[in-house]
Amino acid sequence: MFRRNRLKTRLNQGKSSTGCWLFLGSPAATEVLAHVGFDALIIDHEHSPGGLETAVHQLRAAGGSDATVLARLADNNASEIKRLLDAGVEGVIAANVESAEEVERLVQAAYYPPRGRRGAHFTVSRAAGWGASSQTYFDNIQDEILVVAMIESARGVATLPEICQVPGLDMLFIGPLDLSASIGETGRYDAPAFQTLLAQAEQTILASGVRLGGTELPGSPAAALFARGYSFVTVGSDVGFLRQSACAAAASTSRP
Ligand code: 3PY
Ligand code: MG
Hints:
single chain, 12 helices, binds magnesium ion, binds 3-hydroxypyruvic acid, alpha/beta
């Protein structure tokens, strides 16, 4: 069924928002995490096993919650975007964009004409209540979709001045692991070259007026990122939460 994009509403109201990545492809884990207070859940299709049908189960699992459900794309591909949006994801995130053309392709795939080229079959899609709310969906969805692109390479940072100009782009999200890898400093977040590149990306995005998103890093918790101007911060993942608590439990349990 159609519903308002709560994350987009929060962002438009200037409210800092949090998200959690879903890498497990698990509807049960999605259901648990949908009710703990995150503003958004991100179904990952870039590095994770779940496919479209799993995503539908995850959307159902999160359906009774306030969390907005986004999907990170396997590829910046119009047919993948169409099927995910028709399944009911409320926004899409393209990994590692490096040019304005790639962002324009993303926006074109996410929006119906005249802004874009998304194929219209909301008369039967799950996103429109399998057609039950097709008119409401069509009348509102252009204002509700959240379009996010990730900056994850030195090349992407260099192209930011053009990328930021693309109309319809709601947020640029910095992926620190790939960004550090792109300059040969994989995971070395305190390397001066990485810090310089990160600061350049943050400042260019903030100066452009496009919303800035990113993820917590060692030494940069969400509060520090919000203070630097981030609007949206991911603070963990299903795998991470499970693993961290399992490791802590295993390590702190003495065996008599
Ligand atoms: C990255 O850090 O590269 C990501 O894709 C996620 O934050
Ligand atoms: Mg990445």
